[in-house]
Amino acid sequence: MHSYESDFPIDIAWCPGCGNFGIRTALIQALQELSIDPTLLVFAAGIGQAAKMPQYVNANYFNGLHGRALPVALAIKASNPKLTVIAEGGDGDMYGEGGNHFIHNIRRNPDITHLVHDNMVYGLTKGQASPTSQIGFVTSVQVDGVINVPINPLALALTLGATFVGRAFSGDIPETKEIIKAALQHRGYAFVDILQPCVSFNKINNFGWYKSHSYYLDQTRNTEDINQAFALAQDTRKMALGILYQSKGRPTYEDEVNIYKEDATPIVSRLRDIKGINAFIQT
């Protein structure tokens, strides 16, 4: 079995009790159970506490600009389709700074897994409201409470045609592991919003709050029913956990642009010189 634990001691810069630890455990277990070769795994991340995840896993990774993980992830997958690619970050990183990339990445349907740590607050920059913060949430910046309606990432993903939409809770490691495994095995864009308490800057949406405001879906239900999935996503009072929607068979971005050649040679290997680049552009 492959090891995804670091080969050397690491200082994990998360607060004690942070929900990120549960996500890390579930993610590593999922990768191990699927026997994904760490040399063929690449993480793409932006900026934030959640975006530090790739630094704490024994795999390849690229940390870029705030909110820019998804275009990097798509480019990595397009350059070498043999790779397993995971884009990872927080709700501010992915839905705020990266909101435009979130929208257009869904339209393209690249064969990548998108994991979002959703704690309804900006954890790295000391607790201002994020795109998913609830109305009335008081912070050091929003001193009178949040007045904007929070974004609904699952409903948005469904309306844009995402082929896999799931939600997990970091407090339930076995269940989160299974949802991540399903996302990794899905061919196409797989999106998982992971509810994750921030113990330092969000004293409202804690572990107990998420437990009392969520439930698990029946695993035998029809996950191809888009209308039912949208109804589930719209219910923010009691949040459904599990796979809300999965559609198989839609061509991926890599299929559409004919990246998969007969010899499966990665683009990165075909573009060795200027002639190769010109030949690729002409095709």
Write up what this structure looks like:
- The protein is an alpha/beta fold and 283 residues long.
- The chain has a single domain (20-282), classed as Rossmann fold (3-Layer(aba) Sandwich), CATH 3.40.50.970.
- Helices cover 33% and strands 16% of the residues.
- The protein has 11 helices and 8 strands.
- The protein has helices spanning 20-33, 69-79, 91-97, 99-108, 153-159, 173-185, 207-212, 226-234, 253-256, 267-270, 274-282; strands at residues 41-45, 60-63, 84-90, 113-118, 164-169, 190-195, 214-216, 239-246.
- An 8-stranded mixed β-sheet has the order 2-1-3-4-6-5-8-7, sandwiched between helices.
- Helix 1 crosses helix 6 (173-185).
- The termini are far apart.
- The model has no long low-confidence stretch (mean pLDDT 89).
Distance between the termini: 41 Å
CATH architecture: 3-Layer(aba) Sandwich
The description of the largest β-sheet is: 8 strands, mixed
Count of runs of 4 or more consecutive helical residues: 11
What is the H/E string? HEEHEHHEHEHEHEHEHHH
The beta-strand count equals 8
